[in-house]
Amino acid sequence: MKRLFAAIFILTLLSATLQAQKKQARLLVYDFHNTIRCHTCATIEETMIELLNTHYKEQLDSGIIVFKSFDCQAEENAELVKKYSAYGSTLVFTAFDNDGNEIINDVTDIAFSKIGKKELFYEKMRKEIDEMLEL
Question: Which terminus of the chain has a smaller tally of CB atoms within 10 A, N or C?
Answer without folding.
Answer: N
